[in-house]
Amino acid sequence: MEPNKVIVDTHALFWFILADKRLSKKAKEILEYTQEIIIPTIVLLELFSLIKKKKMLDEFPEIVRRIISDQRIRVVSLNFDTLGTVINDNLDLESHDASIVATSRLLNVPLVTKDRKIREIYKNTIW
């Protein structure tokens, strides 16, 4: 049974918005049909950094428009519960990845990610 909501990490969101072939078939299907796509705020900041790095800043407004126009998307803020989970879990991840995993754990929602290190440490993932 497919989840009715998922959390998405930066590259998965980027590839989904751009219909990039690097998004796995399973991730694509789930992101197309799930009822809710949850985006941690850190993912939006990372998305901006990724777009800047790829010299695609002129496309950023359109990418943001696509995110905003998808009624299934809900942005969740970093909060003290997330911070506490990051501290308690003490995972061997960079802080931004640890906060994404913590959000997934707190909401008990699978995380769509290609990140191998995250998938090795945290099992509630989809790729």
Task: Give an account of the 3D structure.
This is PIN domain-containing protein. By secondary structure, this protein is α/β, with parallel strands linked by helices. The protein has a single domain (5-126), classed as 5'-nuclease (Rossmann fold), CATH 3.40.50.1010. It has helices spanning 10-17, 25-33, 41-53, 60-69, 80-89, 95-107, 116-121, and strands at 5-8, 36-40, 73-76, 111-112, 125-126. A five-stranded parallel beta sheet has the order 3-2-1-4-5. α1 (10-17) packs across α3 and α5 crosses α6 (95-107). The longest helix is centred in the middle third of the chain and has 13 residues, at 41-53. It is globular and about 40 Å long. The mean pLDDT is 96.
- How many structural domains in the coordinates? 1
What multimeric state do the chains show? single chain
Q: How many whole angstroms does the radius of gyration measure?
A: 14 Å
Q: Write the CATH homologous superfamily.
A: 5'-nuclease
The helix-and-strand class reads alpha/beta
Estimated share of beta-strand residues: 5-15%
CATH C-level category: Alpha Beta
Percentage of residues in helical conformation: 40-55%
Protein name: PIN domain-containing protein
InterPro entries: PIN-like_dom_sf, PIN_dom
Domain PIN: 4-120
Short description:
Residues 4-120 form the PIN domain. This protein has 127 residues and is an alpha/beta fold.
Give the arrangement of secondary structure elements.
Blueprint: E1 5-8, H1 10-17, H2 25-33, E2 36-40, H3 41-53, H4 60-69, E3 73-76, H5 80-89, H6 95-107, E4 111-112, H7 116-121, E5 125-126
Parallel strand pairs: 1-2, 1-4, 2-3, 4-5
